[in-house]
Fold this protein.
Amino acid sequence: MMIRETNEPAAPDEPGRQAKSGGRRVVGRVIGGVVAAASIAVASFGSITSAAAGQDINASMTIIAPAAAGGGWDTVARELQQAQKANGLVNNVQVVNMPGAGGTIALGNVAVLDGEPNNLLVGGTGLLAATIQYDSAAKLEDVTPLAVLVEEYDVIVVPADSPYETLEDLATAWKADPKSIPWTGGGSFDQLVVTDLALSAGIEPVDTTYISSDGGGEAIQALLNGTAQAAAGGYADNIDQIEAGRLRALAVVAKEPIEGVDIPTAAEQGYDISLTNWRSIHAPSGLTEEQTDALAELVVETTQTPEWQDAIDRYHWNERLITGDELDTFLADEELRIKELYEEMGQ
């Protein structure tokens, strides 16, 4: 597997490869390939980071995006890079793209960089979900959590000519015949949202039809060409199609109404779902307390820059900075919640 250091501009779509249905045997074959690819990646990544290891974090930093260029993780990595460079927080910042297995290849590579503080890994809900879905050897507890930065909201959408005018209309028809309404989404996170909605509507998730799409753009096409009748997807991915009148938004998945977003929440309509696609930042394990504190301070400083605040507006992110003990509690709660959703899916 090649590791790319690139300065290509980021796009807002999240590259989320969802494992196709077909049982654990298929997943097992995928994992075998992951192990081989990860072995190659470790050697390549080591050569990239060895020069920076042990240096002052303000002199040099590598930010690892656990996906290809373009997409949510890559966008976060590059916006962090630009904010740090523009404000002189770090002299030399590079972004390395390391795709594969829902981000777990990158996680595994960072997990072995014991004690090397000049590396940051972008993560989030999707990465945590992938460690559970793929039962990866590397877990989030194998790296050092620094902060949750932002969260993105999913929207529940249908084609503009759909007979379903409200979330209640859709849920009623879905409950009457769960397999008759094919759903889609841009990645594993979106399937978790559909699962959560099914449970809230009194539907067994294993009885639903979910068509995996490789990214938000492909999910939208599945809706527009009639392959799917409903979808869960990122607000930023879908807002252009909603405003253009091609898709109808039935609900936004958030705990409370969002300022400036004229879409009712699922909770307001009686469906208690609020899973968000949060983005986090992590460092290798084995760091001293002083190194960990310095990295956490760097991350917080970065989020206070004008460049980062501008990115929040451009990408429709919700700023949610979580650090310290609160972060440990948050990650533990999210892991338990996601594990329970996968169990409901029969995985």
In short: Residues 24-49 form the longest helix (26 residues). The chain has two domains: 4-151+278-344, 154-269.
